[in-house]
Write a structure and sequence with these properties.
This protein is α/β, with parallel strands linked by helices. The protein contains 11 helices and 8 strands. The protein has an 8-stranded parallel β-sheet with strand order 1-8-7-6-5-4-3-2. The protein starts with a strand and ends with a helix.
Length: 302
Amino acid sequence: MITGIIPAVVLPMNKSAEPDLDEYKKYLNWVTSADITGIAVNVDTGEGPNLTPEERREVIRSARACIGGKLLVAGVIGSSTSSAIAAASDAKRAGANAGLMFPNPSFAGLPLDPEGPFEYHRSVSEKSGLDIILFQLQPSLGGIEYPLDVLLKLAKLKNVIAIKEATFDAKKFFETLSAFKKHAENVSFLTGNDNFVFESFVLGCDGALIGFGTLPVKDIVKMFKLVKEQKVKEASEIWMRVKPLMEVIYGQPVRNYRARTKFALAALGVISDKATYMRPPLMNLTEAEKTAIKAALRKAEL
């Protein structure tokens, strides 16, 4: 079972919107100084959908060199079954332990026959040999929210080791968590809900695979441990301190959270301010957003 915190990391980029791997390595050393379970690369936070296949491979290789034997999750992104198999196979060869299965746009809309998603995930996991993590993602970030019967069918695949639930909807989260604890207890349940991280822990998830976890890393790790120790009051105090920062980073439009996170990391001195650019069509920040982030960082005492 996977437990603990898996930060979904950003990818520093220069003014030409190319990955800055020197800054990336420095940043990963900072992230892994906390007691994390592993990291997730080439996912939504790390602009995985906007990278080339070779860039994704190089990101994985660079990350593996930095994090040693920790768990390395890589986003698996494909426009078709064959391209997703190729992406998963690439990720495994480059050093990933598991793949986060980005929802395929073909599965948007209802009703959804479970056989389509089942065959897609089965083919990718079996032909690549890579363990996979199911991905329940809100549409605002380009995701798909699978019906519960589809998720439970996918959970029966032998290579499925976890699910990341990131609907940002507490009711859906709890309904899915309850169903998995009853019918898929061997599949780790990881929150991806940056807007209610603390509450996710209290409700009983096994850990987090989460973008906000790459900013106040040590706070998120400590909060999870305190909840597991049933020290909920102490954990809630941490959450109340960092929650205003989360609200700024994940404010509307939520798609800008990646750029906001990079700027916040630069403001903390973790990465260079010359490595905070986004790859188009993702946008860079306005001055108003930068001012709000600086104020939120001060309030969070980071």
